[in-house]
Design brief:
The protein is α+β, with helices and mostly antiparallel strands and 434 residues long. The chain has 15 helices and 12 strands. Strands 2, 3, 4, 6, 7 and 8 form a 6-stranded antiparallel sheet that branches. Strands 1-5 form a two-stranded antiparallel sheet. The protein has a two-stranded antiparallel ribbon with strand order 9-12. Strand 7 and strand 8 form a beta hairpin.
Length: 434
């Protein structure tokens, strides 16, 4: 807030243009003060990046007169980056510090779904949870959040394990495919609006707009890049790293290096109850991601065991020479694995930007490495292991953010990857037939 005094002040005639932003920020007040005394708004300001600052101050809480003065400050994205709608990028307060956009979304749900609890949120023990409290309600909410994130990691982990089973190398280009899927949905964001209402048509449109192009990209990747390197896993892995860098840099040049944000569409939220004063909720996004992952896992299981194509793929990865003697085209099966892996990675990226909001050219690599950690944890070559590994990595990341802070969560996750590789050098599971 000290830096805010250095920002240019908007002229009085222009303040009316920020009325909606002022109201949005003021609507968050019940989460910080029940009955503010001496409530005043600071002059509207902005910084060089075009972010608008709206701040409210109060002298005390009428219901708790001994409380010191307080303030909240809402940073809004430039209208050009948010589809012409006021979108909060960050919220700050004197008591809880800075809240991320995701935290703000969760607070928004709490205020609108459990208003009676929101009015007294400052006096409940649950408000201390983000700073290190571990009440039962807070832990349950973190589990709900980890399940959704784990499903995303699981989808990409399955892509890694399919290609490892088919070609015995790790395709690092799946991370950038996650980023491409996120950008494809961002650029066709109208589909996300349909998905927010949980319509089957919106879900099918997302598959067509993101999944199918991603599958086609994966198939082309197999045929053009990796088919000539068949039988040379080290060369294929190096080619995958080069392809991953090329995709990321191409997107940086096409879309720019700045982080962009999917417009926030309020979705349906389902209260799961209140424990120790903390309201636990699950959103339609949580349910959609979880249901989609379960359906995909079930479809893969049925396809692998009940269809001729699935059995051919399993035969090709078990014994390519014997499969060739039976008339199975091993190269076609590998391309099929790449196409399916591309579909899963692209869909995971679309779900990620739809659920969390930000998208940029660099998001694919860390996401891909976390999914790789899940695949290694579950045993490379095991689809059920990849699914369980995704949930485990998400749980570690989510609770690491609670214990040591969000800035350290990647350190914990990638430290886990290093530890797994040290203790389990082969990284291979026993479930290749899965």
């Amino acid at each position: 807030m000290l830096l805010a005094t250095m920002l240019p002040i908007v002229a009085r005639a222009e303040i009316d243009a920020f009325y909606d932003a002022q109201k949005i920020c003021r609507d968050f007040l019940p989460a910080f003060v029940a009955a503010p005394v001496g409530l005043e708004r600071d002059p509207v300001r902005w910084n060089d990046a075009g972010h608008t600052l709206i701040a409210w101050r109060w002298m005390s809480d009428r219901l708790a007169p001994d409380d010191p003065p307080g303030w909240i400050a809402c940073w809004f994205l430039p209208l050009a980056d948010s589809g012409g709608r006021w979108q909060i990028a960050r919220l700050e307060s004197e008591k809880y510090g800075a809240m991320s956009r995701y935290d703000v979304q969760q607070l928004y749900k709490l205020l609108h779904i459990l208003p009676s609890q929101a009015a007294s949120i400052e006096s409940t023990e649950s408000t201390e949870a983000p700073a290190g409290g571990f009440g039962a309600g807070y832990l349950l909410q973190q589990i709900v959040n980890a399940l959704a994130l784990g499903c995303l990691y699981a989808l990409v982990a399955v892509a890694f394990t399919l290609i490892y089973a088919a070609g015995r190398f790790i395709n690092f280009a799946f991370g950038p495919l996650v980023m491409l899927g996120a950008f494809m949905l961002f650029l066709t964001r109208g589909i996300a609006g349909s998905l927010d209402y949980g319509t089957g048509a919106g879900f099918l449109l997302a598959i067509v707009a993101v999944g199918l192009p991603s599958a086609a990209f994966g198939w082309a990747m197999a045929r053009i890049v990796f088919r000539p390197l068949e039988g040379r896993p080290l060369a294929a892995m190096i080619a995958a790293i080069g392809l991953a860098i090329a995709i990321g840099e191409a997107m940086r040049l096409l879309q720019g290096p700045q982080t962009q944000w999917m417009p926030f569409y309020p979705d349906s939220v389902f209260p799961l109850g209140a424990i120790d004063g903390f309201g636990v909720v699950a959103s339609s996004r949580h349910l959609t991601i979880g249901l989609a992952t379960v359906l995909i896992a079930f479809a893969l299981h049925l396809a692998g065991r009940r269809t001729k194509l699935g059995r051919s793929f399993r035969a090709a990865i078990e014994d390519a020479r014997m499969a060739a003697l039976l008339g199975i085209d091993g190269g076609r099966m590998v391309a099929l694995g790449f196409a399916l892996g591309g579909f899963l990675a692209g869909l995971a990226g679309a779900f990620a930007v739809w659920h969390y909001g930000p998208v940029d050219f660099a998001m694919g690599m860390p996401f891909g490495f976390k999914a790789l950690t899940a695949a290694v944890l579950g045993g490379l070559g095991s689809v059920p292991g990849a699914l369980l590994g995704g949930l485990a990595v998400a749980a570690v990341e989510t609770f690491a953010a609670s214990v040591v802070g969000g800035a350290w969560r990647d350190v914990v996750v990638f430290g886990l990857l290093a530890g797994i590789l040290i203790l389990r050098a082969s990284g291979r599971g026993q479930g290749r037939r899965d």
